[in-house]
Design goal:
4-stranded antiparallel beta sheet, alpha/beta, Aspartate Aminotransferase, domain 2, 16% strand, Aspartate Aminotransferase, domain 1, globular
Length: 394
């Protein structure tokens, strides 16, 4: 948490996007990043290619996976990366005259739950798995839906950390499910909310078939992301052209954004401390709960698997657009737990899936803090939050 601009606003919306890491800004200011096309054969182009190769090797080392096991490709972020994998796999399966069954949790990101129309247009199956009141997915519902799906290829999305609630689905659970279901089911991990929010965020399980990350969530430039994938989940390319990145995503690589991935992760590795972040967040959470009392609740509080930076606060009877506006006037940036479209407040799809009423699902606020959030900052922030909450309740 730190002021973001000359108006001295306090930014508490890191699950939406993160400020650019200091060493990324420093690298940009020096003006020394390669300008050439990485596919060009001249010296300037070769310099850019060397930079990209260094990032590739760094990512393999950082996440502890081997190049012979996982292919790596860069993209513009999670929405493109996830669409490339799911739609690309669906097209490949269609070409092979096979059927695909795709399974996602009801609480997953929109880029996952909105795949239904595309998949069904191609004649494939889409299943949305129920989630419980504490945010965990319903294992029995998943097994029932898988048992009733006779598709020849099955793909399950596993959201590691939910962007709205901060609920974690540990990879150990994925490993157990993979062992039970076998290689007949492919697993994609939405890892977007993991870096800088949970311990061991860079320890990937080889039980999964693919992982997708988005750079702007951890301090890289917007328009940057990457996915690891095994040959088992090798999709048909959606972007055809010059054959860059082994044909997975044609087009000239976004060199500067890709270079920023390495710098931002280096900064995160050096400075992130989960225990300090979690202590600061839980300090604020306890203060908020004591003040709110029976006038609200923290979503997922009873779930033992929670990240270190998120408080999803439900205020009974107070619409999120109202409370968010009051926080905004108090110079605190946070997120509505619901989305606004054409002036109409839409209830949070995640909270509806968890069993909350429509009115409740329109009343949630999400605080999400920096990877470097400290108890001192939380202590300084609390009087401001306290004052705003008292104003809302008055």
């Amino acid at each position: 948490m730190r002021p973001m601009n000359s108006q001295n606003r306090i930014y508490c919306d890191y699950n939406a996007t993160s400020p650019v890491a200091p060493n990324v800004l420093e690298g940009l200011s020096l003006g020394e990043w390669p300008l050439g096309n990485p596919s060009s054969v001249h010296a300037t182009g070769k310099k850019a290619r060397r930079g990209l190769n260094e990032v590739r090797q760094f990512l393999y080392q950082t996440f502890g996976v081997k190049e012979q096991d996982f292919q790596l490709f860069f993209h513009s972020g999670a929405t493109e990366g996830i669409n490339s994998l799911i739609k690309g796999l669906a097209l490949k399966v269609t070409k092979e005259k096979k059927s695909l069954g795709f399974f996602t949790f009801e609480s997953d990101h929109s880029c996952l739950v909105n795949q239904q129309d595309f998949l069904e247009t191609l004649g494939h199956q889409f299943s949305s798995v129920k989630v419980k009141r504490d945010g965990a997915f319903d294992l029995e519902d998943l097994k029932e839906k898988m048992a009733s799906d006779n598709s020849e290829v099955k793909l399950l999305n596993w959201t590691w950390v939910n962007n709205e609630t901060g609920i974690i689905n540990p990879l150990s659970g994925l490993e157990g499910l993979k062992k039970e279901l076998g290689d007949a089911v492919l697993f994609h991990v939405d890892a977007v909310q993991a870096p800088g929010k949970i311990p061991n965020w860079n320890e990937l399980s080889t039980a999964a078939d693919a992982y997708t990350f988005s750079g702007h969530k951890f301090g890289a430039l917007k328009g940057s992301g990457f996915s690891f994938l095994k040959e088992s989940l090798h999709p048909m390319a959606l972007l055809n052209g010059g054959g860059q990145q082994s044909g997975l995503r044609s087009g000239t690589e976004n060199t500067w954004s890709i270079l920023s991935l390495k710098l931002a992760l280096e900064y995160l590795i050096k400075n992130y401390n989960f225990e300090k972040q979690n202590q600061a967040t839980r300090f604020l959470e306890e203060k908020i709960l004591k003040l709110v009392g029976d006038r609200g609740e923290v979503i997922g509080l009873e779930n033992p698997h929670r990240n270190g930076n998120t408080i999803d606060l439900l205020l009974y009877g107070i619409k999120a657009h109202t409370s968010a506006m009051v926080f905004d006037m108090g110079s605190i940036d946070l997120s509505n737990g619901s989305a606004c479209s054409s002036g109409a407040v839409v209830p949070s799809r995640v909270l509806l899936a968890m069993g909350y009423s429509e009115d409740e699902a329109k009343s949630a606020l999400r605080f999400s803090f920096s990877p470097y959030f400290t108890k001192e900052e939380a202590t300084e922030l609390w009087p401001k939050i306290e004052s705003i909450l008292n104003r809302l309740f008055s």
